[in-house]
Amino acid sequence: MNINKLIQTSLRLLLILSLSTLTACDAQENAKPDKTDMGAVVGINYTGEGIQHFTVDEAGGGGIGRYGVSGVICCAMYPSKWTPELRVTVEWERSDCEGRRNMCTVEAAKQDKWPHKSFSKTIPIEKYTEDGRIYVAFLPNDEVRLYISRVGPRNRNFPSKLGMPHDPDENAKTNRPVENSKPYDPILNRGNR
């Protein structure tokens, strides 16, 4: 084989490799979302068990008391435009005191013997049309939903329509009705409307 043919063959291979690399880069560029937004993460607990810690795709953290709302935890990214295939992984650890409150004491917590369970679920992001905070709603039966909204659960336009969390036992003790006090039914998806 003469030197000219070797050079030509090498140049052709180099050209083919360059074109395939450019095509791969173009495909990766097309796979990126057009635009992303960033939102603070807020947890809402509609259950009688405390949430010790939670994350959304490894962002967030903190805890939430029984029937409570967490503080604002910064931050997580999400696509500016909602699509039906959007999913996130929510991981959380919650207390497991139901039926055994005697095990859920300050002393048990000090000795790291507080009963708890850990969960990880990949869930769809509920439909959104504008940017906002990222609300993680912890529901009975270890269900979880994720909403992106500019308004919080006190506002009647909050996407879940569940209102603020509240302890149904406390309502009975005080004999006081609470605004948005209809119970959440995870099967029928009936909430405060």
Write a brief structural summary:
The chain is an alpha+beta fold and 193 residues long. The chain has three helices and seven strands; from the N terminus they run αββββαβββα. It has two domains: 1-32; 36-174.
Describe the fold and architecture:
The chain folds into 2 domains: 1-32; 36-174. It is built from 3 helices and 7 strands. The protein has helices at residues 3-31, 106-110, 168-174; strands spanning 36-45, 51-56, 73-79, 87-95, 116-124, 133-139, 143-149. The strands form 2 sheets. A 4-stranded mixed sheet has the order 3-1-6-7, with no helix packed on it. The chain has a 3-stranded antiparallel sheet with strand order 2-4-5, with no helix packed on it. A hairpin with a 3-residue loop joins strand 6 and strand 7 (143-149). The protein is globular, with a radius of gyration of 25 Å. The N and C termini lie far apart (82 Å).
